[in-house]
Amino acid sequence: MLKREGQIRIPSGCAISGVMDKKGRPFSGATIINSISVMRERSNGLGGGFAAYGIYPEFKDTTAFHVFFDDKIAQGELENQLKKYFKVIYKEAIPIRRVPSIKNVPIIMRYFVTPKIEKIYQTNLSEEDYIIKFVFNVNTHIEGAFIVSSGKNMGVFKAVGYPEDVGEFYKLETYYGHIWSAHGRFPTNTPGWWGGAHPFNLLNWSVIHNGELSSYGSNREYLKQHGYQCNLQTDTEVVVYLFDLLYRKCNLPLDIVCKVLAPPLWDEINRMPKNKQQLYKSLRAIFGQALLNGPFSIIISTNEGLIALNDRIKLRPLVAAEKGDMLFIASEESAIRAVCYQPDKVWHPRGGEPVIGLVETSIRSNINLKEASS
Amino acid sequence: MNLNYTTPEFIILRDLQKCNNCGLCVKNCSFEAHYYSKHQRVESNSAKCVNCHYCVATCPKKALAIKKHPLEFRHNSYWTESAIKDIYKQASTGGILLTGMGTDREYPIYWDKILLNASQVTNPSIDPLREPMELRTFLGTKPGKLELDKTNNLSELMPPQLELQIPVVFAGMSFGSISYNAFKALAIAAHKAGIYFNTGEGGLHKDFYEFASHAIVQVASGRFGVNQEYLENSAAVEIKIGQGAKPGIGGHLPGKKVGEEVSKTRMIPLGSDAISPAPHHDIYSIEDLRQLIFAIKEATEYKKPVLVKIAAVHNVAAIASGIVRAGADIIVIDGFRAGTGAAPTRIRDNVGIPIELAIASVDERLKEEGIRKHVSIIASGGIRNSSDVVKAIALGADAVAIATAALIAMGCHMCQKCYTGKCNWGITTQDPELTKRLDPDKASQRLLNLLRAWSLEIKEMLGGMGINAIESLKGNRLMLRGVGLNETELKILGISHAGQ
Ligand code: SF4
């Protein structure tokens, strides 16, 4: 039998796109669908997905679990677990519309939950680690259940199909968010598993990724030492965990995190002033195994913004543009121009030079859907 | 008549048409395998030949050749030639059999049963001639976090590290076991290549203080040459607990190798045997090791990493874990193929485990225990070439140490007679007539050439895998596949079989 993705590693090529409003104003998912659809030939219909931020303002303080189930048994099992560890504020089936090209549809649910305080105390974990532990447990141990996303005021929508079909399937044009990213996949064989599509998410982090990490084995070992189980065997998973480790746990600033993942070359470091040399030397010495090697362009999104990053020698395409408060990032310029008429500025970030777009008013502040859209 | 049971191992072939009787071979052979006959003809005594090739290489007429002696015992798969000859030797001397270099027995060579990966299509390979390819490596304990101030400068420097331009260092070889010139060649080469040489347990001759910034000074059970000045004139300090060629036993430098310079450097009387005890007599347990580690750290003001070197033995993973907890910054694991100046043959050939398995299991164990980041691992003992280096790092080492390969680069021909002190190539001898055969400048150039060649090859292999920094190879066992290995071996190595 063909192994499911996650049991084996499947290299793939891809299209990526990301759009954000730096002022935090929500806009419809139609924009990102239009952008990614331009790059149809970069994917092959075997995986597409979106991450949307700011879409659940009425539940902004609860964790939103998007979950796929193979069957009712898995669903029952997860819901039992969920009841044990969380208070479920609201649950529903994620609304979908039938699209002919999207087949083998699993049960797709979303749950808005808050962790049970007394349980957290018992475990001695932070709220984030508590949720991570739950997600790891479900995804490894409950057969037929897969938590797709686990952040606040955000969600991941993905499927096996072309991204624009996936967008239509999930009715994304009816959602309003201030940060969107999208991914179209070109895997080298037929995984046929929904969980394998991008974005890949953990807490508020979502990653879409074009490329293959030749450092995967090394990165995975590094993460293992820090308590992360890479059970999906996808490169993207590694990127998410590295961000979580470096940014949340090691407390490094975002730009420094990017410099760990795609560090400057030694030649460049040698030319820096003494204090910077010391910094970069230490970063490379200490976090060397977190370096992402091999070709990649990635977009990482959180509630606070978008980060785009290329490998150090730019082996995959990445273009960025700005117009007013809007930031656009995509594999190809065409995908930007399709949704942005006459951008103020278009540029090709150099290898290892991150593009960091932050929301001016933090997303955790009150952005009210109705107010903003009216 | 006193019958000699031992028959010659080699036969010296002299082409009499070419030989002009110049007698250079007579002068050159420290084993006295060539001599003048009564008729003033140069002749050879094959029984004394050790097959070191020195006469062959230096004969101006190219008149000499050496072959394995054709004399054979009646075939017997159990009572082999070496089994029989060893008994003859012991029956005549009553002593422990001695030998030099690493074991020459046919144990499995895992390096040769592991294959590397390369990129195709989905992931471009990187051309090291056109793209940067980085091999710089840091050895030492790494903090889990890095504190930065508001301007993104370091609030605290990281613990001391050894910075290597290529992930290779020279393993411990003492002045005493090797010659002054050989030692000097290693020091010069390490200095120029941006790596480190290791004093072994023989102290550091004052002449070499200029290379101190590239010296790892060893503190072994004999404590030869150890004093404050010695510790200060170093980049790092290594506590040698054991070595792969002879795990569990000490060392013995015969008095005849202890000339004036060796005696001064080791701080022992001229001509006295230098005997290092099997254990350190202040380390009978892991907490004692901790005390020594911290005594050295105190003495060097926490400015230098402390290495602990052990032989790869059966429970190496658990021992390594203890050593990390005892505070070592770097662990050197020396596999059973490691060389040495002198070792009892039985120990050399029967004790210890292969470095490939040791590295994989130590790396795995330390990761499981969450302490791998506290320590760097150097794999040592029989590293022969650049692909061994790449495989060692992918199996979990941070760097490798080489000694035999370095000696071969300087001219060693692996005759395994180092323990006699008569090395014709001027390497493992203190005889001034022999040591002057080795020119330290030329020898260091050959070492540099070797290191350069290996680094070019490593870059090619990395590029092929689509990697442009050595960090991304570390512990990257997905880049490895086994051929002809059984389930257990694959499991210990943590790799899949080719085709999987
Ligand atoms: S160092 Fe000298 S004596 Fe030892 S094996 Fe090499 S050539 Fe022979």
Describe the structure in brief.
The complex is a heterodimer of chains A (374) and B (500). With 374 residues, chain A is α+β, with helices and mostly antiparallel strands.
Explain how this protein is built.
The complex is a heterodimer of chains A (374) and B (500). Chain A is of the alpha+beta class. Chain A has a single domain (15-373), classed as 4-Layer Sandwich (Glutamine Phosphoribosylpyrophosphate, subunit 1, domain 1), CATH 3.60.20. Chain A is 30% helix and 28% strand. Chain A is built from twelve helices and 18 strands. In chain A, helix 1 packs antiparallel against helix 5 (163-169) and helix 6 (216-225) crosses helix 7. Mean pLDDT of chain A is 87; it is low at 362-374. Chain B has 500 residues and is an alpha/beta fold. In chain B, helix 4 crosses helix 14 (440-465). Chain B is globular, with a radius of gyration of 24 Å. The longest helix of chain B is centred in the last third of the chain and has 26 residues, at 440-465. Iron/sulfur cluster (SF4) binds at residues 52, 100-101, 407, 412-418, 423, 425, 427-428 of chain B.
The largest inter-chain interface, given as chain pair and residues per side, is: A-B, 47 and 44 residues
What is the count of distinct domains of chain A? 1
* Uncertain residue segments of chain B: none
Any idea how many domains of chain B? 2
Question: What gap, in angstroms, lies between the N and C termini of chain A?
Answer: 53 Å
| Residues in helices of chain A, as a percent range | 25-40%
Average pLDDT across residues of chain B? 94
Note the total helix count of chain A. Answer: 12
CATH topology of the largest domain in chain B: TIM Barrel
- Structural category of chain A is alpha+beta
Report the structural category of chain B.
Answer: alpha/beta
Associated small molecules: iron/sulfur cluster
